[in-house]
Amino acid sequence: MTRSFQPPQRILMGPGPSDVHPRVLAAMARPTIGHLDPEFIRMMDDVKRMLQYAFRTKNEMTFVVSAPGSAGMEAAIVNMVEPEDKVVVCINGVFGGRMKSIVERCGGVAVPVEQEWGRAIDPNALEDTLKQHPDAKFVAFVHAETSTGALSDAKTLAEIAHRHNCMVIVDAVTSLGGSPLEVDRWELDVVYSGSQKCLSAPPGLSPITFNERAVAHIRNRKTPVQSWFLDVNLLMQYWGGETKRAYHHTAPINNLYGLHEALVMLEEEGIEEAWKRHAENSARLQQGLASLGMEYFVPEGERIPQLNAVKIPEGVDDAAIRSRLLNEFHLEIGAGLGPMAGKIWRIGLMGAASTTRNVLYCVSALREVLK
Ligand SMILES: *Cc1c(COP(=O)(O)O)cnc(C)c1O
User: Fold this and answer.
1) Are residues 118 and 303 in contact, defined by beta-carbon separation less than 8 angstroms?
2) For ligand 1, is residue 68 a contact (CB within 6 Å)?
Protein backbone atom coordinates (compact mmCIF):
# COMPACT_ATOMS: atom_id res chain seq x y z
CA MET A 1 0.00 0.00 0.00
CA THR A 2 1.21 3.47 -0.82
CA ARG A 3 1.12 5.72 2.20
CA SER A 4 -0.04 9.33 2.36
CA PHE A 5 2.55 11.85 1.30
CA GLN A 6 4.04 13.78 4.21
CA PRO A 7 6.19 16.61 2.92
CA PRO A 8 9.04 17.74 5.15
CA GLN A 9 8.82 21.16 6.79
CA ARG A 10 11.08 23.53 4.82
CA ILE A 11 11.93 27.20 4.91
CA LEU A 12 11.47 28.41 1.36
CA MET A 13 13.96 31.14 0.52
CA GLY A 14 14.30 30.58 -3.19
CA PRO A 15 12.71 32.27 -6.22
CA GLY A 16 9.26 30.85 -5.38
CA PRO A 17 7.24 29.15 -4.13
CA SER A 18 7.64 31.02 -0.86
CA ASP A 19 6.51 29.83 2.55
CA VAL A 20 2.74 29.49 2.74
CA HIS A 21 1.28 30.77 6.01
CA PRO A 22 -0.69 28.22 8.10
CA ARG A 23 -3.76 30.46 7.78
CA VAL A 24 -3.61 30.04 4.00
CA LEU A 25 -3.14 26.26 4.27
CA ALA A 26 -6.07 26.08 6.70
CA ALA A 27 -8.26 28.07 4.32
CA MET A 28 -7.51 25.55 1.57
CA ALA A 29 -8.71 22.67 3.73
CA ARG A 30 -12.24 24.14 3.97
CA PRO A 31 -15.11 22.33 2.23
CA THR A 32 -15.15 22.35 -1.54
CA ILE A 33 -18.34 23.93 -2.85
CA GLY A 34 -19.66 24.35 -6.38
CA HIS A 35 -17.91 26.97 -8.45
CA LEU A 36 -21.24 28.58 -9.38
CA ASP A 37 -22.51 28.48 -5.79
CA PRO A 38 -23.53 32.04 -4.79
CA GLU A 39 -21.19 31.80 -1.79
CA PHE A 40 -18.28 30.92 -4.07
CA ILE A 41 -19.12 33.81 -6.38
CA ARG A 42 -19.11 36.14 -3.39
CA MET A 43 -15.63 34.85 -2.53
CA MET A 44 -14.49 35.49 -6.12
CA ASP A 45 -15.76 39.07 -5.88
CA ASP A 46 -13.66 39.50 -2.72
CA VAL A 47 -10.60 38.16 -4.53
CA LYS A 48 -11.14 40.58 -7.38
CA ARG A 49 -11.54 43.56 -5.04
CA MET A 50 -8.46 42.60 -3.01
CA LEU A 51 -6.43 42.15 -6.20
CA GLN A 52 -7.43 45.65 -7.27
CA TYR A 53 -6.05 46.78 -3.93
CA ALA A 54 -2.80 44.86 -4.38
CA PHE A 55 -2.30 46.02 -7.97
CA ARG A 56 -3.31 49.60 -7.02
CA THR A 57 -5.90 49.74 -9.77
CA LYS A 58 -9.57 50.37 -10.37
CA ASN A 59 -9.48 48.18 -13.50
CA GLU A 60 -12.78 46.35 -13.84
CA MET A 61 -11.00 43.60 -15.77
CA THR A 62 -8.99 42.21 -12.88
CA PHE A 63 -9.20 38.51 -12.20
CA VAL A 64 -7.25 35.29 -11.72
CA VAL A 65 -6.08 32.95 -14.48
CA SER A 66 -6.49 29.34 -13.31
CA ALA A 67 -2.88 28.40 -13.96
CA PRO A 68 0.60 29.55 -12.90
CA GLY A 69 2.42 32.80 -13.71
CA SER A 70 3.53 31.59 -17.14
CA ALA A 71 -0.14 31.25 -18.09
CA GLY A 72 -0.68 34.85 -16.97
CA MET A 73 2.16 35.80 -19.30
CA GLU A 74 0.55 33.82 -22.09
CA ALA A 75 -2.90 35.31 -21.36
CA ALA A 76 -1.52 38.86 -21.47
CA ILE A 77 0.28 38.37 -24.76
CA VAL A 78 -2.19 36.14 -26.55
CA ASN A 79 -5.07 38.57 -25.94
CA MET A 80 -3.17 41.70 -26.98
CA VAL A 81 -0.99 40.57 -29.87
CA GLU A 82 -2.33 39.68 -33.32
CA PRO A 83 -0.33 38.14 -36.17
CA GLU A 84 2.23 40.56 -37.61
CA ASP A 85 1.96 43.01 -34.68
CA LYS A 86 5.34 44.39 -33.74
CA VAL A 87 6.26 44.00 -30.07
CA VAL A 88 9.39 45.46 -28.51
CA VAL A 89 10.47 42.95 -25.86
CA CYS A 90 13.00 43.97 -23.21
CA ILE A 91 15.22 41.04 -22.30
CA ASN A 92 17.52 41.00 -19.28
CA GLY A 93 16.97 37.42 -18.18
CA VAL A 94 15.06 34.17 -18.64
CA PHE A 95 11.56 35.59 -18.31
CA GLY A 96 12.04 38.36 -20.90
CA GLY A 97 13.16 35.59 -23.25
CA ARG A 98 9.98 33.65 -22.46
CA MET A 99 7.87 36.71 -23.34
CA LYS A 100 9.62 36.95 -26.71
CA SER A 101 8.96 33.29 -27.41
CA ILE A 102 5.22 33.69 -26.68
CA VAL A 103 5.00 36.81 -28.88
CA GLU A 104 6.47 34.81 -31.75
CA ARG A 105 4.11 31.89 -31.16
CA CYS A 106 1.24 34.39 -31.52
CA GLY A 107 2.60 35.32 -34.95
CA GLY A 108 3.84 38.66 -33.64
CA VAL A 109 7.15 40.21 -34.66
CA ALA A 110 9.39 40.51 -31.58
CA VAL A 111 12.02 43.25 -31.57
CA PRO A 112 14.36 42.56 -28.66
CA VAL A 113 16.02 45.19 -26.48
CA GLU A 114 18.88 43.14 -25.10
CA GLN A 115 20.32 44.11 -21.75
CA GLU A 116 23.24 42.61 -19.90
CA TRP A 117 21.93 40.03 -17.40
CA GLY A 118 21.97 41.32 -13.83
CA ARG A 119 21.17 44.88 -14.88
CA ALA A 120 17.89 46.79 -15.06
CA ILE A 121 16.55 47.58 -18.54
CA ASP A 122 18.20 50.74 -19.85
CA PRO A 123 15.41 53.24 -20.69
CA ASN A 124 17.61 54.87 -23.36
CA ALA A 125 18.00 51.54 -25.15
CA LEU A 126 14.20 51.17 -25.21
CA GLU A 127 13.82 54.72 -26.53
CA ASP A 128 16.36 54.11 -29.31
CA THR A 129 14.66 50.91 -30.38
CA LEU A 130 11.24 52.58 -30.45
CA LYS A 131 12.65 55.38 -32.62
CA GLN A 132 13.86 52.75 -35.08
CA HIS A 133 10.50 50.96 -35.02
CA PRO A 134 7.75 53.59 -35.18
CA ASP A 135 5.26 50.88 -36.19
CA ALA A 136 5.67 48.97 -32.89
CA LYS A 137 2.36 48.48 -31.05
CA PHE A 138 3.49 47.08 -27.69
CA VAL A 139 6.37 47.12 -25.27
CA ALA A 140 6.75 44.05 -23.05
CA PHE A 141 9.06 43.89 -20.06
CA VAL A 142 9.64 42.11 -16.76
CA HIS A 143 9.43 44.41 -13.73
CA ALA A 144 11.40 42.14 -11.37
CA GLU A 145 13.55 39.67 -13.36
CA THR A 146 13.69 36.75 -10.94
CA SER A 147 16.35 34.93 -12.92
CA THR A 148 18.96 37.63 -12.23
CA GLY A 149 17.64 39.72 -9.33
CA ALA A 150 17.34 42.98 -11.33
CA LEU A 151 14.45 45.41 -10.82
CA SER A 152 13.61 47.68 -13.75
CA ASP A 153 12.00 51.12 -13.59
CA ALA A 154 8.50 50.20 -14.74
CA LYS A 155 7.18 53.76 -14.49
CA THR A 156 9.85 55.19 -16.80
CA LEU A 157 9.68 52.32 -19.29
CA ALA A 158 5.89 52.74 -19.52
CA GLU A 159 6.22 56.51 -20.05
CA ILE A 160 8.62 55.97 -22.92
CA ALA A 161 6.40 53.31 -24.47
CA HIS A 162 3.31 55.52 -24.28
CA ARG A 163 5.17 58.46 -25.80
CA HIS A 164 5.77 56.18 -28.78
CA ASN A 165 2.11 55.11 -28.92
CA CYS A 166 2.74 51.63 -27.54
CA MET A 167 0.78 49.84 -24.87
CA VAL A 168 2.78 48.02 -22.19
CA ILE A 169 2.59 44.40 -21.09
CA VAL A 170 4.26 44.00 -17.71
CA ASP A 171 5.41 40.90 -15.85
CA ALA A 172 4.90 41.61 -12.15
CA VAL A 173 5.11 37.99 -11.01
CA THR A 174 7.81 38.67 -8.43
CA SER A 175 7.08 42.35 -7.76
CA LEU A 176 3.39 42.21 -6.78
CA GLY A 177 3.16 42.55 -2.99
CA GLY A 178 6.94 42.86 -2.61
CA SER A 179 8.03 46.12 -4.20
CA PRO A 180 6.11 49.24 -5.19
CA LEU A 181 3.87 48.61 -8.18
CA GLU A 182 1.32 51.22 -9.24
CA VAL A 183 -0.82 49.92 -12.08
CA ASP A 184 -3.05 53.01 -12.39
CA ARG A 185 -0.55 55.75 -11.55
CA TRP A 186 2.05 54.34 -13.93
CA GLU A 187 -0.66 53.64 -16.54
CA LEU A 188 0.40 50.03 -17.03
CA ASP A 189 -1.95 48.54 -19.61
CA VAL A 190 -1.70 44.80 -18.92
CA VAL A 191 -0.06 43.37 -15.80
CA TYR A 192 0.07 39.77 -14.63
CA SER A 193 1.52 38.10 -11.55
CA GLY A 194 1.69 34.78 -9.73
CA SER A 195 0.29 33.47 -6.46
CA GLN A 196 3.44 31.82 -5.08
CA LYS A 197 5.93 34.68 -4.85
CA CYS A 198 5.23 37.69 -2.62
CA LEU A 199 1.56 36.81 -2.11
CA SER A 200 2.67 33.55 -0.47
CA ALA A 201 -0.22 31.42 -1.68
CA PRO A 202 0.48 28.06 -3.29
CA PRO A 203 1.47 28.07 -6.98
CA GLY A 204 -1.05 27.55 -9.75
CA LEU A 205 -2.87 30.89 -9.98
CA SER A 206 -2.05 34.03 -11.90
CA PRO A 207 -3.66 37.37 -11.01
CA ILE A 208 -4.02 39.63 -14.05
CA THR A 209 -5.37 43.09 -14.81
CA PHE A 210 -6.23 44.97 -18.04
CA ASN A 211 -6.96 48.70 -18.19
CA GLU A 212 -9.72 50.21 -20.32
CA ARG A 213 -7.38 50.90 -23.21
CA ALA A 214 -6.33 47.26 -23.26
CA VAL A 215 -9.92 46.04 -23.03
CA ALA A 216 -10.97 48.29 -25.93
CA HIS A 217 -8.05 46.93 -27.91
CA ILE A 218 -9.11 43.33 -27.27
CA ARG A 219 -12.72 44.08 -28.22
CA ASN A 220 -11.52 45.56 -31.53
CA ARG A 221 -9.25 42.69 -32.55
CA LYS A 222 -9.46 41.68 -36.19
CA THR A 223 -8.67 38.04 -35.44
CA PRO A 224 -10.01 35.79 -32.68
CA VAL A 225 -7.74 35.15 -29.69
CA GLN A 226 -5.73 32.04 -30.60
CA SER A 227 -6.32 30.39 -27.21
CA TRP A 228 -9.81 29.35 -26.16
CA PHE A 229 -8.87 28.82 -22.51
CA LEU A 230 -7.14 32.19 -22.12
CA ASP A 231 -9.52 34.32 -24.20
CA VAL A 232 -10.40 37.24 -21.93
CA ASN A 233 -13.72 37.81 -23.72
CA LEU A 234 -14.86 34.38 -22.55
CA LEU A 235 -13.16 34.50 -19.15
CA MET A 236 -14.92 37.71 -18.24
CA GLN A 237 -18.29 36.06 -18.67
CA TYR A 238 -17.19 33.92 -15.74
CA TRP A 239 -15.36 36.49 -13.60
CA GLY A 240 -17.38 39.47 -14.89
CA GLY A 241 -19.02 42.04 -12.62
CA GLU A 242 -22.60 42.79 -13.68
CA THR A 243 -23.19 39.97 -16.13
CA LYS A 244 -24.52 36.62 -15.01
CA ARG A 245 -21.81 34.04 -14.43
CA ALA A 246 -21.59 31.48 -17.17
CA TYR A 247 -19.67 28.24 -16.97
CA HIS A 248 -16.28 28.53 -18.61
CA HIS A 249 -14.10 26.03 -16.77
CA THR A 250 -14.19 24.63 -13.25
CA ALA A 251 -12.22 27.06 -11.12
CA PRO A 252 -9.52 25.62 -8.81
CA ILE A 253 -11.85 26.18 -5.88
CA ASN A 254 -9.71 25.38 -2.84
CA ASN A 255 -6.67 27.02 -4.36
CA LEU A 256 -8.71 30.22 -4.66
CA TYR A 257 -9.63 29.94 -0.96
CA GLY A 258 -5.90 30.01 -0.31
CA LEU A 259 -5.30 33.07 -2.46
CA HIS A 260 -8.28 34.76 -0.78
CA GLU A 261 -6.77 34.23 2.66
CA ALA A 262 -3.34 35.40 1.46
CA LEU A 263 -4.94 38.60 0.16
CA VAL A 264 -6.87 39.09 3.41
CA MET A 265 -3.52 38.92 5.19
CA LEU A 266 -2.03 41.44 2.76
CA GLU A 267 -4.92 43.83 3.43
CA GLU A 268 -4.47 43.40 7.18
CA GLU A 269 -0.80 44.29 6.92
CA GLY A 270 -1.31 47.02 4.32
CA ILE A 271 0.39 46.96 0.95
CA GLU A 272 2.78 49.79 1.73
CA GLU A 273 3.78 48.08 4.99
CA ALA A 274 4.45 44.90 3.00
CA TRP A 275 6.72 46.82 0.60
CA LYS A 276 8.53 48.28 3.58
CA ARG A 277 8.98 44.90 5.26
CA HIS A 278 10.47 43.41 2.09
CA ALA A 279 12.90 46.33 1.76
CA GLU A 280 13.96 46.20 5.42
CA ASN A 281 14.56 42.46 5.48
CA SER A 282 16.58 42.69 2.30
CA ALA A 283 18.74 45.41 3.87
CA ARG A 284 19.31 43.12 6.87
CA LEU A 285 20.23 40.24 4.61
CA GLN A 286 22.67 42.42 2.65
CA GLN A 287 24.45 43.27 5.90
CA GLY A 288 24.60 39.63 6.95
CA LEU A 289 25.90 38.42 3.60
CA ALA A 290 28.50 41.19 3.55
CA SER A 291 29.73 39.92 6.93
CA LEU A 292 30.34 36.58 5.22
CA GLY A 293 32.26 38.31 2.44
CA MET A 294 29.57 37.57 -0.13
CA GLU A 295 28.90 39.93 -3.01
CA TYR A 296 25.70 40.85 -4.82
CA PHE A 297 25.40 40.11 -8.53
CA VAL A 298 23.25 43.19 -9.27
CA PRO A 299 24.52 46.76 -8.68
CA GLU A 300 22.98 48.71 -5.82
CA GLY A 301 19.87 50.61 -6.85
CA GLU A 302 18.81 47.91 -9.33
CA ARG A 303 18.21 45.08 -6.85
CA ILE A 304 14.94 43.30 -6.16
CA PRO A 305 14.58 43.32 -2.34
CA GLN A 306 12.63 40.06 -2.35
CA LEU A 307 15.11 38.20 -4.57
CA ASN A 308 18.73 38.61 -3.60
CA ALA A 309 21.12 37.34 -6.28
CA VAL A 310 24.60 36.77 -4.88
CA LYS A 311 27.79 35.51 -6.50
CA ILE A 312 28.77 32.00 -5.45
CA PRO A 313 32.11 32.43 -3.67
CA GLU A 314 35.22 31.25 -5.51
CA GLY A 315 35.97 27.53 -5.07
CA VAL A 316 32.62 26.68 -3.48
CA ASP A 317 30.66 23.63 -4.68
CA ASP A 318 27.24 25.09 -5.58
CA ALA A 319 25.17 21.89 -5.48
CA ALA A 320 26.88 20.51 -2.36
CA ILE A 321 26.21 23.67 -0.38
CA ARG A 322 22.58 23.88 -1.42
CA SER A 323 22.00 20.26 -0.59
CA ARG A 324 23.59 20.71 2.86
CA LEU A 325 21.34 23.71 3.47
CA LEU A 326 18.34 21.61 2.50
CA ASN A 327 19.24 18.45 4.39
CA GLU A 328 20.83 19.87 7.53
CA PHE A 329 18.92 23.13 7.83
CA HIS A 330 15.70 22.43 5.88
CA LEU A 331 16.45 25.65 4.07
CA GLU A 332 15.86 26.07 0.35
CA ILE A 333 17.69 28.78 -1.57
CA GLY A 334 17.57 29.14 -5.34
CA ALA A 335 20.21 28.03 -7.82
CA GLY A 336 21.13 30.11 -10.85
CA LEU A 337 18.77 29.70 -13.81
CA GLY A 338 19.90 29.07 -17.40
CA PRO A 339 23.22 30.81 -18.10
CA MET A 340 23.45 31.86 -14.44
CA ALA A 341 23.63 28.23 -13.22
CA GLY A 342 26.68 27.69 -11.02
CA LYS A 343 27.39 31.44 -10.93
CA ILE A 344 24.79 32.84 -8.53
CA TRP A 345 22.47 31.87 -5.72
CA ARG A 346 19.07 33.45 -5.48
CA ILE A 347 17.95 34.08 -1.93
CA GLY A 348 14.28 34.89 -1.76
CA LEU A 349 12.63 36.91 0.98
CA MET A 350 9.15 36.74 -0.42
CA GLY A 351 5.83 37.17 1.34
CA ALA A 352 5.50 35.14 4.52
CA ALA A 353 9.17 34.12 4.19
CA SER A 354 10.31 37.74 4.47
CA THR A 355 10.99 37.80 8.21
CA THR A 356 13.89 38.93 10.37
CA ARG A 357 14.06 35.44 11.79
CA ASN A 358 14.57 33.92 8.33
CA VAL A 359 17.26 36.46 7.51
CA LEU A 360 19.21 35.58 10.65
CA TYR A 361 18.67 31.87 10.16
CA CYS A 362 19.83 31.96 6.54
CA VAL A 363 22.97 33.95 7.35
CA SER A 364 23.84 31.59 10.24
CA ALA A 365 23.26 28.50 8.13
CA LEU A 366 25.39 29.89 5.31
CA ARG A 367 28.15 30.77 7.77
CA GLU A 368 28.08 27.19 9.00
CA VAL A 369 28.13 25.45 5.62
CA LEU A 370 30.72 27.80 4.07
CA LYS A 371 33.21 27.24 6.94
C1 LIG B 1 8.11 32.73 -11.47
C2 LIG B 1 8.05 33.71 -12.60
C3 LIG B 1 7.28 33.47 -13.75
C4 LIG B 1 6.58 32.18 -14.02
O5 LIG B 1 5.66 31.82 -13.07
P6 LIG B 1 5.24 30.28 -12.93
O7 LIG B 1 4.20 30.33 -11.86
O8 LIG B 1 6.47 29.53 -12.58
O9 LIG B 1 4.69 29.86 -14.25
C10 LIG B 1 7.22 34.46 -14.71
N11 LIG B 1 7.89 35.62 -14.57
C12 LIG B 1 8.66 35.86 -13.49
C13 LIG B 1 9.37 37.17 -13.39
C14 LIG B 1 8.76 34.92 -12.48
O15 LIG B 1 9.53 35.16 -11.42
Assistant:
1) no
2) yes
Establish whether residue 95 lines the binding site of ligand 1, counting it when its CB lies within 6 angstroms of any ligand atom: yes
- How close is the Cα of 292 to the center of ligand 1, in Å? 30
Residue 282 CA, ligand 1 centroid: distance in Å? 20
87 and 225 both lie in a single domain: yes
Q: In one letter, which amino acid is 245?
A: R
State the amino acid at position 185 in one-letter form.
R
Q: What is the pTM of this model?
A: 0.97
Element (H, E) at 348: strand 344-348
Q: What is the per-residue pLDDT for 241? A: 59
Domain carrying residue 328 = 11-16+271-369
Q: Are 279 and 332 contained in the same domain?
A: yes
Q: What is the pLDDT of residue 242?
A: 57
CA distance linking residue 103 with residue 136, whole number of Å: 13
Q: Supply the pLDDT for residue 239.
A: 84
Ligand 1 centroid, distance to 100 Cα (angstroms): 14
Question: What three-state secondary structure class fits 268?
Answer: helix
Q: How many domains does the chain have?
A: 2
